[in-house]
């Protein structure tokens, strides 16, 4: 008999400092109307020196644990699926998060799939919990401040000016009767594996090359190939992973009631909704946060519930895509 795994708690954390589209317009050279209406950035949160990736992930995790009403010592595993631009290089951020939340009986590791990370982390944790009866609770936590790594004047990385800072967490329970995880799917297009990398050429004139312990800025190595390839495969790959996750759940796209998905330009977001038979009232658009890497799915779930768009019994899909290039989705039955 398959052991059911469900979401027992969730939480997010965002630093208080905000940049609005009006603030970003002179920094990017992009008109405010374009930022707001086409790129979907009304505002984004930005981190100061105190808001490290592990601090933000840990604050979100504390909220998830409090919502679940458990002692953190009941957690058997902590998985960090957040940014590699973190407190230190070549370092296990999950162990720091584990320490900060008081999960003293857990072990901890990182997994990394960039902005596709949350659905893959949920699927991975579910499999581990089903295989290991000692894992009654598993904590997934992510933090991101990759906006630090963007030269806002670099036209090659213009699509990344929506990056914002924050943290998100999901706490999973073994033998769950509510919010049960069902199917999952992912696909990777390796021809896009080196299209987005850190380069020193992307550093703006007059700014330091090193940010924290990272040298360079995120850059696009072949903009035309990336645009052409994503134009051909991104929509069908999003639809494929969403459909496969739902079908693995024994359902069909017509049964889906809510989609929580990575922030992207608004026209493509609406195109994906239309392609899977949903409307904007069955999702949330993250235009007051921007794209916070693999935090987006926990945030979308939180906002969907707060706005009354997710109800008991709903089939919910969380989906994302990250450079590399991977698309991922996971389906769950809420309530």
Characteristics of this structure?
single chain, 335 residues, alpha+beta, Peroxisomal Thiolase, Chain A, domain 1, five-stranded mixed beta sheet, 25% strand
State the helicity in percent bands.
25-40%
CATH fold-level assignment of the largest domain: Peroxisomal Thiolase, Chain A, domain 1
The gross shape turns out to be globular
Radius of gyration (CA) equals: 19 Å
CATH class of the largest domain: Alpha Beta
Question: What is the CATH homology-level superfamily of the largest domain?
Answer: Thiolase/Chalcone synthase
Number of helices: 8
Can you characterise this structure?
The two termini are 21 Å apart. The protein has two domains: 5-178, Thiolase/Chalcone synthase (Peroxisomal Thiolase, Chain A, domain 1, 3-Layer(aba) Sandwich), CATH 3.40.47; 182-333, Thiolase/Chalcone synthase (Peroxisomal Thiolase, Chain A, domain 1). Strand 14 and strand 15 (326-333) form a beta hairpin. It is globular. The protein is built from eight helices and 15 strands. The chain is of the alpha+beta class. Helices cover 30% and strands 25% of the residues. Helix 1 crosses helix 2 and helix 3 crosses helix 4 (93-101). The longest helix has 26 residues, at 223-248. The chain has a five-stranded mixed β-sheet, with helices on both faces. Strands 8-15-14-13 form a four-stranded mixed β-sheet.
């Amino acid at each position: 008999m398959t052991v059911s795994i469900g979401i027992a708690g969730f939480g997010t954390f965002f630093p208080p400092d905000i940049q609005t589209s009006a603030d970003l317009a002179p920094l990017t050279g992009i008109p405010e109307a374009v930022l707001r209406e086409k790129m979907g950035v009304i505002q984004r949160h930005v981190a100061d020196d105190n808001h490290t990736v592990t601090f933000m992930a840990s604050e979100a995790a504390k909220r998830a644990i409090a919502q679940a009403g458990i002692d953190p010592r009941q957690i058997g595993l902590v998985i960090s699926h957040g940014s590699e631009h973190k407190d230190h290089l070549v370092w296990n951020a999950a162990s720091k998060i584990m320490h900060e939340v008081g999960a003293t009986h857990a072990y901890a590791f990182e997994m990394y799939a960039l902005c596709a990370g949350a659905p893959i982390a949920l699927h991975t944790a579910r499999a581990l919990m089903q295989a290991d009866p000692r894992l009654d609770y598993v904590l997934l936590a992510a933090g991101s401040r990759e906006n630090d790594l963007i030269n806002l004047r670099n036209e090659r990385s213009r699509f990344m000016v929506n990056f914002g800072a924050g943290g998100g967490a999901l706490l999973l329970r073994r033998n769950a009767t509510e919010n049960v995880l069902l199917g999952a799917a992912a696909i990777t297009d390796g021809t896009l594996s080196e299209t987005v990398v850190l380069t020193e050429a992307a550093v703006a004139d007059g700014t330091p090359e090193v940010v924290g312990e990272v040298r360079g800025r995120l850059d696009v190595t072949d903009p035309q190939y990336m645009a052409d390839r994503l134009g051909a495969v991104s929509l069908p790959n999003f639809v494929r992973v969403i459909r496969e996750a739902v079908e693995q759940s024994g359902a069909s796209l017509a049964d889906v009631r809510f989609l929580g998905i990575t922030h992207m330009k608004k026209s493509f977001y609406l195109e994906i909704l239309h392609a899977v038979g949903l409307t904007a009232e069955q999702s949330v658009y993250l235009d007051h946060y921007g794209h916070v890497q693999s935090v987006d799915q926990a945030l979308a779930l939180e906002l969907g519930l707060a706005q009354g768009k997710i109800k008991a019994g709903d089939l919910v899909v969380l989906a994302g895509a990250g450079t590399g290039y991977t698309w991922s989705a996971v389906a769950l039955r809420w309530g």
